[in-house]
Amino acid sequence: MTVLSLLRRLALAGAALTVLANPAVCAGTDLDFPNDFHTEEVATNGTTLHVRVGGMGPAVVLLHGYGDTGDMWAPLAADLARNHTVIVPDLRGLGLSAPAETGFEKVNEAEDIVGVMDALHAPHVDVVAHDIGNMVGYALAARHPDRVTKLVLMDAPVPGIGPWDEILKSPLLWHFRFGGPDMERLVAGRERIYLDRFWNEFSANPAHFPEASRAHYAQLYAAPGRMHAGFRQFAAFDQDAIDNRAWLAAHGKLPMPVLAIGGDKSFGPMMAVVAQAGAVDVEERVVPDAGHWLMEEQPAATVAAIDGFLNSRPAAAKDGHLGQTALSLEQTQMMQQSGAGAGTSGLSGIRTVLLYGDPAKPGPYMLEIHVPPHTVIAPHTHRDDRFATVISGAWYFGYGAKAGDAAVKPLTAGGFYTEPGNAPHFAFTRAEPAVVRLTGMGPSDTIYVAAAAPH
To answer: Rounded to two decimals, what is the model's pTM?
Structure first.
């Protein structure tokens, strides 16, 4: 999906603007957390956050966005509390957290959450975020990757990451730049009118944002200092973009698994495009019949997607059958390298990355060999059939027991060849190194049949 497609998608959502939802036809809502949850006022990073806590098990932090508070997560919290300790703060200055005048840069708000984690003795957490929460969650994961195990980003961009500058051009996002000395005075006493604009325009069907939720959030945002905090969240975007671009350039992409969820009438697959610009391991989910307000519009489907991601475990190979593994090129390049092993040349200088399985055992496997310049792998055989793809560099491959007498096929990135079982073959590099990816069905081995250098 292009950025233009996203903007058209948002424009269609705006064209669908209707009158306020009729309470009689609203979907049901429940903003109450389970009875075994409790609340705490946590002093952190120069402010105090209102935090809901419940459940037992590995910790997960849920970060809300603008137009909501932590109350939006009640259905998800009830689900995750079965096997997680669920931590749900109201962001700085919003909801029932302490009023705040400053500190809305997302790097700083990430430290607010670190303080909550420390206070609640949660050294490692999964993070689930929506809207402004995405921006805080990204900053938290980027600067504390050792403390964030998984990250869910839902239907909102991240300043400075991916197509941020193009997204800013949408006229539907005028509120990103809404400011000036009169902005708070203009909406004072009219908070419900201002917020209804977002709930209506960014819903697939405004009737699916329940009236009870509208009234609840409008009352919270009308409290002293809350609209100020909301406006300051947006005013910090320019600095957030500067911070994120600098950090990405210096430290690279997020290493942890990321689930990117978009509503099909809102960001849709563009959410994954944004995430891939800032993370190496991204899974995409698009929720049908949903706009921006995923938890209000399609709570069951959204909860199921998040629960499945947080509780997923890699599917292992069984009885020689292939297990489930999907890795990006960036992920494979970050994996630990080793020397010789079953099914490899055994030559010093060649580094091996085992991507899947074990060549020494029955079952499928995949490995990469990183071969330096001017390296020769003499004619040899493997007991199993293997398939190979050149990932990068220049690779010279041929069949035969005598390399000097055989035809050589020069291969570059994307080149493909086979290594039939027990068929002699050889390979080498010249001035350029090469990376080659090999798959086979173990157990494998390597038996040299000749030692002849190519011309």
So the answer is: 0.74
